[in-house]
Amino acid sequence: MSDNATVLIVDDEPSITDLYALRLREEYDVRTAYGGEEALKQIDEDVDVVLLDRRMPDLSGDEVLDHIQERGLSPGVAMVTAVDPDFDILDLGFDAYVVKPVPEEKLKETVETLLRRSSYDSKLQELTSLMSKRAALKAEISPDELDDNAEYERLGERIDSLRAELDDTVESLDEEDFSAAFYALSRGQE
Amino acid sequence: MTEDYTFRGLPMASVLPGTTLLVSGPSHAGTREVAYSMLAGAEDEGVVVVTTNRRASRVARNFEAASMRLDPARSAIVSCVGQDDRDADVDARLAEVTGPGDLTGIGMRYSKLVEELHRDGVERVRTSVVSVSTLLSFSDVQTVSRFVHTLVGRVGSIDGLGVLLIDPDAVDERVLSNVAQFCDARVDVRERDDAPEMRVRGLPGQSREWTAVELYG
Lengths: 190, 217
What we know:
The complex is a heterodimer of chains A (190) and B (217). Chain A is built from seven helices and five strands; from the N terminus they run E-H-E-H-E-H-E-E-H-H-H-H. Chain A is of the alpha/beta class and 190 residues long. Chain A folds into two domains: 6-112, 3-Layer(aba) Sandwich (Rossmann fold), CATH 3.40.50; 116-184. In chain A, strands 2-1-3-4-5 form a five-stranded parallel β-sheet, with helices on both faces. In chain A, helix 2 (36-42) runs parallel beside helix 3 (61-70). Chain B is α/β, with parallel strands linked by helices. Chain B has one domain (19-212): Rossmann fold (3-Layer(aba) Sandwich). Chain B has six helices and nine strands, in the order βαβαββαβααβαβββ. Chain B has a nine-stranded mixed β-sheet with strand order 4-3-2-5-6-1-7-8-9, with helices on both faces. The longest helix of chain B is centred in the middle third of the chain and has 17 residues, at 103-119. In chain B, 53% of the residues are buried. Chains A and B meet through helix 4, helix 6 and helix 7 of A and helix 3, helix 5 and helix 6 of B.
């Protein structure tokens, strides 16, 4: 049991995969996959961040990403590429790219950035959904009854604490984080 | 530390940088005019307006009516009315998105324009969305709420001023209260004797009483 975030590292070169794992192991729960197929077996809702090699012989990074999205999973994804891509990365469905070889600092910074963004997105989604629930309850139940309604009270407490957490998170967001947050609005929608 | 944002000709006290206000009132009551008046600041302040259902040229006329001058050096418009606005002849930087349902596009264009203004030395920026009601008729409440939260956060991070317009007659009261909770304060506008009145709720140092507004006086 641990509260650490989970990072899945995918690269068909085991030496690279293991090196990244070594660098991240202290702070995160790390899973490794030496190929695209294996990555699909390792990924589940517990994975917060995926470091995904773009060029792999069995399944490419792009194909792995498609599978991840088809399964309704939404980890933060950093594509690891051999060359600096000259395209708008956000349009391709991943959140960051890093160019090989990835220095240790850059590796850690990338994971942190993706965690910060996905934490903001998921908390905000939870908050707006709870607020809608609370509003619906309020419409159904008379004000007197609301005071004694345990569910309503719990909702209120959770909403307050989420809002406080989000206020803190917002202060740590930079320009690119905000762009990513706006981008995330179109994800998960039809 | 930047100075407070002040409001010319409106019965309200200045507000701290980073504040976002939700301006709520029926369209016939002069609410839009009140919102535009709140965008009038010092000569060196910038302004970015997201127009959801009116063309950039109408925005320009709203500015003129509020005795403000658009200037490409410090004014920008994000237009959601589609390609019609591509060649709009207005004195502002112009960005367009495919429609009011494209919240990602609006957010990204907005962010980019703010970055450009900052890069060009415009540090203080007033941001407006006219109006949130339109956004709500194109996307579900939760997505619009997320958009508003992120926009309010962005305005806070640049020490800007946010002015979001909403028509309470066009949206459910529950929806209005959800959106309002993400803003720092609410400015209500109503019509009395053919003239608008306003009050500010949720901020210290502001009059909570209904006060007559003399528009563009």
